[in-house]
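Step 1: inspect the first sequence and its tokens.
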Amino acid sequence: MSAAKDADLLGRLRVLEDKEALRRLMIRGWRALDRKDWRTWSECWAEDAVLEFGPWGEIHGREAVRAKVAEAEAHFPSMQHHILNMDFQVEGDGATGIGYMWFVAVTGSGPGSSPYSMGGPYDWDFRRGPEGDWLLVRQRLGVWWTSGDETPDGLG
């Protein structure tokens, strides 16, 4: 193989590895979110991260994002954040991604609890961190639909 072909192959392999690392980052973070493991979830975000969510506007900074999401999801005894149809584009030490959110939770415990769900598009920006790992820099989340008796406090 020529040096040019080797470099091309290594470049394509690096992009594939980066896309897999981004997918793992999102799955690790959102599984932690379902467990309310705020430390692990927060580690997925850059210190200067921004969360854009219609009802909330823009939330700036990792700690402010964590605090707002923890407050909004505090009353759900159990929840599942599904990230669907993820697609990532990598450009060196930066990346973008899109996907869909399907959030399902119960608003109480026991058989009389009321389910709530919502869905919409995700749009992400990432950058490679100082250790070579990927971090979420910006997340834009839209809500296209909701289902349940009413929108829980903090989400609407």
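Step 2: inspect the second sequence and its tokens, then contrast the two.
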Amino acid sequence: MTEREANLDVEVEIRDTDTAVLSVGGELDIDTATLLHHHLANQFVHGRRHLVLDLSRLAFMDSSGLNVLIRAARDAREAGGDLHLVAPTPAVRRILEITGLTMTTPLHADVAQALVAAGHTR
């Protein structure tokens, strides 16, 4: 499933009943953060509590986007799962590090590594 709004692309790949990979590209800002939030919330509604966000195509993220990631990490933990971030671009990685999100949410080099960390073995 792929959805494009303004300057944000979100592709969702369901790996199993507990795990989804969301590939995010473009710009995650005040105009597009709600779209990503809806995609993430939809995964929780459907029982997927291990979420992998591939940020390798995300060129820009502001505080609105950061808030969506913080909320998703919290919601995943509350559901007994986790959020894994993959290959953020240098600009996005800097925001994640400055705000300390990398202290509580794991970063991975690629999706395969994140899936292993999330307990997905297939």
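Step 3: confirm your contrast with the notes below.
Residues 1-5 have pLDDT under 50 and may be disordered. The radius of gyration is 13 Å.
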